[in-house]
Each structure stands twice: as C-alpha cells, then as structure tokens.
Amino acid sequence: xxxxxxxxxxxxxxxxLRGWQAVAGRDAIQRHFKFADFNEAxxxxxxxxxxxxxxxxxxxxxxxxxxxxxTLSTHxxxxxxxxxxxxxxxxxxxxx
Amino acid sequence: xxxxxxxxxxxxxxxxLRGWQAVAGRDAIQRHFKFADFNEAxxxxxxxxxxxxxxxxxxxxxxxxxxxxxTLSTHxxxxxxxxxxxxxxxxxxxxx
Lengths: 96, 96
Description:
- Chains A, B: It comes from Paraburkholderia elongata.
- Chains A, B: It is an enzyme of class 4 (lyase).
- Chains A, B: Its EC number is 4.2.1.96.
- Chains A, B: InterPro entries: PCD_sf, Pterin_deHydtase.
- The structure is a homodimer.
- By secondary structure, chain A is α+β, with helices and mostly antiparallel strands.
- Chain A has one domain: 2-Layer Sandwich (Gyrase A, domain 2).
- Chain A is built from 3 helices and 4 strands; from the N terminus they run H-E-E-H-E-E-H.
- The first copy, chain A, has helices at 7-15, 38-55, 82-93, and strands at 21-22, 29-34, 60-64, 67-72.
- In chain A, strands 1-2-4-3 form a 4-stranded antiparallel beta sheet, with helices on one face.
- In chain A, a hairpin with a 6-residue loop joins strand 1 and strand 2.
- The longest helix of chain A has 18 residues, at 38-55.
- The N and C termini of chain A lie far apart (32 Å).
- At the A-B interface, helix 2 and strand 3 of A face helix 2 and strand 3 of B.
C-alpha cells in the first residue's frame, strides 16, 4: 500500500520538477515533450518504458510523431504518490 | 502527394481489416488493443514503431499499462489513405 502525497509534500515536490502541471479534475501531473522527430520521441519513450518496468510503475502517455504527452498518477492510491515524483525525476533527467 | 481513399475504397478496405472503427468527427480509423501486461504492450508498440519509421507513416497512439489505442490518418491528405490501410494491415498481422 502506498499513500498519496500530502498537500505540502505535493506542493514542494511538484515545484521541484521541470514543466509538470496538475491535470484538471484528477490528482495527476502531466508534461508535454517535443522532439526532433519520431525516432527521437520513440527512443525517449523506450528509455522511460524500461525505467517504468523496473519501477513497476507505468505512465499514461500519448504520442504522435515528435510529440509525447505523459500523465503520471498512482492508480492504487487514486492520486499522486512518491512513485510518480520518482518517475518524473527520471524523465526530467533524460530530457535535460 | 497522396489522395484520400474514395468512399468505395474506404468501405471495402476498412471492412477487410480486423476491429478498426471510424473515429467520430474525423476521417480516421481506430483500434483498441489489450495485452497481458506492459511488457507485451510496449513490445507490440516497438514493432509498430519500427514499421512506421520504415514507412515514414506514424500512428497517433495512447498507452496505459496493458492497453494501447491506435488512431490512423494521413495528415498531409487530411484523411484516410492507402498508407493507413497498409499500416493497419501490418498491425493486424502481428496481433493475430
């Protein structure tokens, strides 16, 4: 079992990420990415997929050509948890 | 330049695919897939990605865990073309 972040934890930790926004009507965060082309976008997705599998924590994501939209939330907690922050930090680290 | 399928071509060719539906309000087709887990879903996406890159014709797609939703349309023709049918056929062939 994993607990949702408290409002304070959430405020601090989401602010420390890069470009992640709250999702309207859901306890989740979202970031949009734009790459040079599909090769670069899918290469990025593959790196995230491997990390997600290792963490057993998976994104919701949409891709078209060079664009990727990622939404993070923890289904079993019905909201944002440390796992989302950890995955978001990894994603930020590979898109520096 | 590539032309949109005619109504007749479209009716025949989409019917020959498996499980593809017209998208409301767009000249596009969509199919939903469900796999055993994320590993299988992303493995499938990787096969489609490699084919799409080879064809230089890319899907719009959404994934969460074991689910994948794929939408096909040809942006430069603003609708459904032979390229979409060809990519859909490939996708069908690897999910038999």
